[in-house]
Specification:
single chain; Jelly Rolls; Chitobiase, domain 2; seven-stranded mixed sheet; 10 helices
Length: 628
């Protein structure tokens, strides 16, 4: 149809960074697809991709419900993978979200005991499942409508002459787009991307040069604090004036809060809801944090996953206690239920669940070494049959259980002397200095790509940063937490690795070499550094600056990391006795490299010298023997 364009919204761009596996006999998962706002939708459908383990019984099935209304039921026997299309009615698309509930029954036989004994069966919903919509192009006239229809990959264009203000606005935009699940690439004007960060005068002059005599519009209803949607003859783009980057972040935060309102939706990197944004107390309930989908039906096991990213908190805090308020159905035939609590995939504590049917609290202390800059709590409720006899369960196939919204996490201030990369992210929540060598601004695509990846992967908010540009070496040491980008060694800075060293090796306690930086090319060095009582991250990118950048900056444990274009190559702690960093002098390195040749040459020289001395001595003896 003319004027109608098809748009697809994948689960991976809705915050589901991995596939979701259903692994118990009776299990379900709820997904949420954001419905674009301010646009006319002429129809839509869900396209669901799932795979199934082989060997399932003929009574195994999967049910799909849209907005709690069953829409489709599929038998799973004999299948391994399938795409299912579910048409959506106009009524289905009236809300802010399309709620998709996937409920699976996974059986290998009609023998209940056999089903419980055999494990490994699954149904996996892949994150390339999508919502497909038909949208009238003429209706895309507002910032919200334009933003909601963006593809997964977007381009941001910046002014080639970046100053500190433009630089900070661009970093903020790129980080927020990455946090929203977009793959961000960068360009320099006059190339026009989906977003443009530049002064209005420069931009309009460029547009008039490129489109002489053409009419273009910036709809008044789409203007927010220096942000405007431009309609050109051949494309649309969103312009952000550098001074308005704070307003741009508010536009993003409103959208992400809307996502959180989708009933238990957890974005890939988190976004703090309004109830928690300004909370000063170090205690946050799950209700404060926006988690509402906490009811489960339990046949053999049920699971809750709660992701707490730094974005959800209003201050620099680390989790100290997890207090779980749980209500569970009383057992049948003395069946016992167990509660397993994990933090970042490490088992922290196991409880026997109270059998009274009343709400009970289970307090879990959280060791500091288990926490990171983003923390995933996994709570598993398991029903056990007495003496292993599954037939004593009677007719009760499943029972309800719920983690109450009053469940809360107690937080504590971070360590004042961070020893790990993950500790720095918490430190940065109270503000930090972003210290960048001025010469890097001459290559904006390289610089913005690096910082966008770093801020996204380490959950660092550019809104907390103060920009400090320096020529070669910072004139003064930092006075608050810092992120230093560059290879110059500032006065007063202490760090494990000297970037000026020609050779850097890592050895174990037996002096055996385990890593040689010089054996690789294009290596970036990241390390925890200190300036007096202030700590920060010092990142030394590869030289020259045009070298390929790491794809990821997943820095967690340790205080020194070496990265190449694929990510972290080697990560270590300089404070342990197991590893030490050797900064060899060039002469020592030369001797070490050619020690065999040097030894052979020395043997030859000594042999020649010995032979020469022997000849001289023999000649002298003959002369003495020939005297009259």
């Amino acid at each position: 149809m003319r004027g109608i364009k098809e748009y697809e919204f994948l689960l991976k761009s809705q915050g589901y960074v991995t596939d979701i596996a259903l692994e118990s006999q009776n299990s379900f998962h709820i997904f949420y697809f954001k419905v674009p706002r301010d646009v006319r939708i002429h129809g839509g459908k869900l396209k669901i991709h799932y795979s199934i383990s082989p060997g399932l019984d003929e009574h195994s099935n999967v049910q799909f419900a849209v907005n709690k209304t069953p829409k489709f039921l599929s038998n799973l026997a004999g299948k391994t993978s399938e795409w299912v299309e579910i048409p959506l009615s106009p009524e289905d698309l009236k809300k802010e979200f399309v709620q998709l509930t996937v409920r699976a029954t996974l059986l290998v036989s009609q023998d209940m005991c056999l089903n419980q004994m055999i494990s490994g069966f699954y149904l996996t919903v892949h994150n390339d499942s999508r919502l497909q919509l038909s949208v009238a192009e003429s209706s895309v006239t507002t910032i919200r409508g334009y933003y909601d229809l963006l593809p997964d990959a977007v381009t941001v264009s910046v002014d080639p002459q970046m100053n500190a203000e433009t630089f900070q606005a661009a970093v903020a935009m790129g980080t927020d787009l990455s946090n929203a699940g977009k793959k961000v690439s960068w360009a320099v004007l006059p190339e026009m991307g989906d977003f443009v960060v530049a002064g209005a005068e420069n931009l309009e002059g460029l547009i008039k040069t490129r489109y002489p005599g053409a009419a273009f519009s910036t709809p008044l209803e789409g203007t927010v604090s220096g942000i405007a949607l431009y309609q050109l003859p051949d494309k649309k783009f969103l312009h952000c004036h550098p001074a308005a980057y704070g307003g741009f972040r508010r536009v993003f935060s409103v959208r992400l809060v809307d996502l959180m309102a989708g009933g238990g939706y957890t974005p890939a990197t988190g976004a703090r809801p309004e109830a928690a944004k300004d909370k000063k107390s170090p205690v946050y309930s799950l209700e404060d944090l926006g988690f509402t989908d906490l009811h489960r039906w339990v046949s053999d096991t049920a699971e809750w996953n709660i992701v707490i990213s730094p974005d959800l908190l209003s201050a620099a805090l680390r989790p100290a206690f997890f207090n779980i308020d749980l209500v569970s159905t009383p057992s049948v035939n003395n069946q016992q239920a167990m509660l397993h609590v994990y933090l970042n995939d490490k088992l922290v504590k196991v409880f026997r669940v109270d059998d009274s049917g009343e709400p009970r609290r289970y307090a879990v202390p959280l060791p500091a070494y288990m926490s990171g800059f983003s923390n995933t709590f996994r709570v598993v409720l398991q029903r056990l049959d007495p003496q292993g006899d599954c037939r004593m369960g009677g007719v009760s196939k499943s029972f309800p259980a719920q983690i109450l919204a009053s469940t809360h996490i107690e937080f504590s201030p971070p360590d004042k002397h961070p020893e790990r990369f993950s500790d720095l992210t918490i430190q940065f929540k109270n503000g930090f200095d972003l210290m960048v060598q001025e010469s890097y601004l001459q290559n904006p695509v390289w610089l913005l790509t690096l910082l966008t990846r770093l801020f996204h992967d380490m959950h660092i908010s550019p809104a907390e940063a103060g920009i400090v540009l320096y020529p070669v070496t910072p004139a003064e040491p930092p006075t608050r937490p810092f992120l230093l980008l560059g290879a110059g060694w500032p006065e007063g800075l202490a760090a494990p690795v000297n970037p000026a060293a020609e050779n850097i090796r890592v050895r174990d306690m037996r002096k055996k070499e385990v890593f040689n930086v010089n054996a690789l090319s294009g290596i970036s060095i990241a390390q925890v550094a200190s300036a007096g009582d202030q700590y920060g991250l010092w990142l030394m990118p590869p030289r020259p600056a045009e070298s390929p950048l790491p794809d990821t900056f997943v820095l967690r444990d340790g205080d020194v990391a070496f990265l190449d274009q694929n990510g972290v190559v080697f990560q270590m702690s300089s404070t342990t006795h197991l590893l030490e960093v050797e900064r060899a002098e060039p002469f020592k390195e030369w001797v070490s490299r050619y020690r065999i040749q040097i030894f052979l040459l020395a043997v030859i020289l000594v042999s020649v010298l010995f032979f020469y001395l022997y000849r001289m001595f023999s000649r002298h003896k003959r002369k003495e023997g020939g005297r009259p």
